[in-house]
Design goal:
The protein has about 300 residues and is α+β, with helices and mostly antiparallel strands. It holds the Pfam family Glyoxalase.
């Protein structure tokens, strides 16, 4: 069993409109845009990062806003719901703030406030006792109600057996099962330590598009830990990419048996490597290999 995984690092999804996406996550949810850059493989598409003040691992929701992307179809083989942690007593505030866009349920004894982003992607808020992570309070949501980071992510699968085995290999412990949902957690993580696996044997396969999670990333402290995980996964039979420099972290990727794309990302070097902490997410930052495209991209990319 591995012990290098420290919970979630980030979750990356697809959107259809950059400006709308930016407004929702900054103005409505009160998160900080910590980086405005572009997709490495499609530089005419933004890659936007939202999180806490520094973009700490376990707080960052990222998006590829492909202009006019078709809406995805929910199903199995994907991350279905991403859940944020809020302070005790903050649910009424968010119920009012998201009025008209909320539903409620209870999972493992915790009340959840369910809501959707503009492209239909599914989120939840949970009051998490003892979450000492500091929220970003610069976008109109006070520290008393602000989002601390991720609480968990829910994967929807036809069969959860292989995923349970993989998560166990990655250092996650099975906590409990409620109906068709099994909860897993890793100790000493980023605060975003929980994965829920929802088993839906008769559901259709998800079709990726706007509103779909593209991949889910797990955090490791450094490149040495990442290489150890990569070798262990290769030895187990997984097809794992080489290490890829994503400017703000190093990444490896592999496809899980249920179809969900996993990334393992380093906590180093962080989002302040090319911007002062007080000005994160303000300027358009381009990967070195795309810097020559700046005049074209600054004209083509939607203003946000």
């Amino acid at each position: 069993m591995l012990n290098q995984i420290k919970g979630l690092h980030h979750v990356t999804s697809i959107a259809a409109d950059a400006a709308q996406n930016n407004r929702f996550f900054t103005n409505t949810l009160g998160l900080r845009r910590v980086k405005k850059t572009v997709n490495f493989d499609a530089p005419d598409v933004y890659h936007l990062y939202y999180g806490d003040e520094t973009g700490a691992p376990g707080s960052v929701m990222t998006y590829f806003p492909f202009p006019n992307a078709a809406r995805g179809t929910a199903g199995v083989g994907e991350v279905g719901t991403t859940t944020f942690s809020i302070p005790e007593g903050a649910l009424p505030y968010w119920r009012d703030r998201l009025a008209g866009n909320v539903a409620e349920d209870t999972r493992f004894g915790q009340q959840r406030l369910l809501f959707t982003a503009p492209d239909g992607d599914q989120f939840a808020l949970v009051e998490q006792l003892g979450d000492a992570r500091a929220p970003w309070a610069g976008n109109g949501v006070s520290a008393d109600e602000g989002i601390r980071g991720f609480h968990s992510a829910t994967m929807r699968l036809q069969d959860g057996g292989a995923m349970a085995e993989l998560l166990g290999f990655m250092g996650y412990e099975t906590l409990e099962t409620e109906g068709n949902v099994t909860r897993f957690a890793v100790a000493d993580g980023t605060g975003a330590n929980i994965i829920d696996v929802e088993t839906l044997p008769d559901a259709q396969r998800a079709q990726q598009g706007a509103g779909s999670v593209h991949h889910i990333a797990f955090a490791v402290e450094n490149r040495q830990a990442q290489l150890e995980i990569r070798q262990a996964l290769l030895d187990t039979g997984y097809q794992v990419t080489p290490v890829i420099d994503r400017d703000y972290f190093w990444a490896i990727y592999f496809r899980t048996p249920g179809g969900v794309l996993f990334e393992v990302a380093t906590n180093e070097p962080g989002f302040d490597r090319d911007e002062a902490p007080a000005h994160l997410g303000e300027a358009l930052k381009l990967p070195t290999r795309h810097e020559h495209l700046r005049p074209v991209l600054e004209q083509k990319l939607q203003k946000i």
